[in-house]
Write a structure and sequence with these properties.
- The protein has about 200 residues and is an alpha+beta fold.
- The chain has a single domain (about 40-190), classed as Ubiquitin-like (UB roll) (Roll), CATH 3.10.20.
- It has helices spanning about 60-70, 125-130, 140-155, 160-170, 180-190, and strands at about 40-45, 50-55, 85-90, 95, 110.
- Strands 2-1-5-3-4 form a 5-stranded mixed β-sheet, sandwiched between helices.
- A hairpin with a 2-residue loop joins β3 and β4.
- α2 (about 125-130) crosses α5.
- The longest helix has 14 residues, at about 140-155.
- It is globular, with a radius of gyration of 28 Å.
Length: about 200
């Protein structure tokens, strides 16, 4: 009796031989073992103090500062370089530490918010202006604002309000509405030492 044409597409495939069974004991486990890269030794000067550490090549600079050095003032927000909370200075220039690997800072100088105040506890003029004009609320974004504004004030001794707002556009704040931050930056710019760059 001939097979109906529509059944030809539903017949299971014919096997000529059974597949060879693999011995589980002989199966290699190398694909299941985690591959941990060898540590790389780096030397980084952070806030004027030299640190030598062995780090994984994939370790982010933000995690190196927070975990390896305990400098938790560098906050981690979006981890995409958008919010600016992780901003630090690398050789005097503002960078997003969540977008850099620690090995990229090898041989360079990094400044974090912990290095702004003087050793005796006196606040940097920019910090003092933020406190005086209440330019913070929850404070999570504040370290990133401060570290972004240090090189800005260094390069703009007498900024206009429009220039200040442009400089602030790279950092996100959910609390203050930016008005008091602008006021604080303008006040710090009028302070003689307000453009001082941390060590």
């Amino acid at each position: 009796m001939p097979v109906a044409p529509y059944l030809l597409f539903h017949l299971p495939p014919r096997r000529t031989a059974l597949p060879r069974r693999r011995d589980p004991a002989a199966r290699s486990l190398r694909f299941f073992e985690p591959r941990v890269p060898s540590p790389v030794e780096i030397t980084v000067t952070v806030n004027g103090e030299q640190h030598r550490r062995g780090v994984e090549p994939r370790l982010l600079l933000s995690d190196f500062l927070r975990v390896n050095l305990g400098l938790t003032g560098t906050h981690v927000g979006c981890e995409h370089g958008v919010c600016g909370a992780c901003t630090v200075l690398l050789d005097g220039e503002a960078v997003r530490s969540c977008l850099l690997f620690a090995v990229q800072a090898d041989g360079h100088a990094v400044a974090t918010v912990e290095g702004l105040a003087s050793p005796d506890g006196e606040l940097h003029p920019l910090q003092a202006a933020f406190r005086e004009h209440h330019a913070l609320q929850c404070g999570f974004c504040t370290p990133g604002f401060l570290m972004s504004l240090i090189p800005f004030l260094r390069d703009h001794a007498d900024p206009s309000e429009e220039e200040v707002r442009e400089a602030l556009s790279g950092n996100l704040c959910r609390c203050t509405g930016y008005a008091n931050i602008v006021t604080a930056v303008m006040a710090a710019a009028r302070t003689p030492s307000g453009t001082a760059t941390p060590a």
